[in-house]
Amino acid sequence: MNDVPKGPESGRKTYRDFEWVARDYPWVMNGLFVTYVKDSDPATVIEAMTVEILGAESGLTGVNERGWEEFAIIGAASVDDWTIAIAPSSIAGVSDELMRPLSLGREVVTHYRDVNGGSGFYVWEDGERTAYFDPLLRCGFGLDPMPAQWVPRLAEVGVNPDGEEPMTEDSGFPVIEASLALAANYTGARITPEFLSSATFIVGSAD
Q1: pLDDT tens readout for residues 7-37
Q2: Is the dihedral of CA 94, 109, 145, 166 positive or negative?
Q3: Is the pLDDT of residue 5 over 60?
Q4: Nearest to residue 91, comparing CAs of 160, 35, 9?
Q5: Closest CA to 124 of 37, 4, 186
């Protein structure tokens, strides 16, 4: 994997640039799965990640409210040349079985924080998982160290790469915010307040 961060060099994001997400959508602290798919469209992504397409919803609030009826709801919308799929609780975005074929000929990135407080950050490229780490514990699988190329990326978004220490200088653990910043800097796809509030999401159920 290229060690040079992707996306525009100007406008690098830190975790503080995404503090509005938990403020505007406090339910994300109970779980949030975000998948970025390069060079694909929302309908294709939803077809690959779900078993039933359910139409469309307006904004992340609409996706979440639909989740009261469909627990495994996933919504997908486009940002530049990426499709971003967001799920309150569906784990489809971390499934090797689903993400490996979806990443053929393209790149897929997923980060999550689940209801139990677990977290992860994954990258697949052309059918292979090329990176995994836990942004909370700042380690790879098991006791593996952080992937070396992601250590400076953590520092760039304001996170201490040392898993023995709090993530931030104020002793915080902003897993969701830091993961969003990491993904923004890596992909160049920007999740903005306007996008989450007004984008039309194609929705489907993973169950």
Answers
A1: 434 479 999 999 999 999 999 999 999 999 9
A2: negative
A3: no
A4: 35
A5: 37
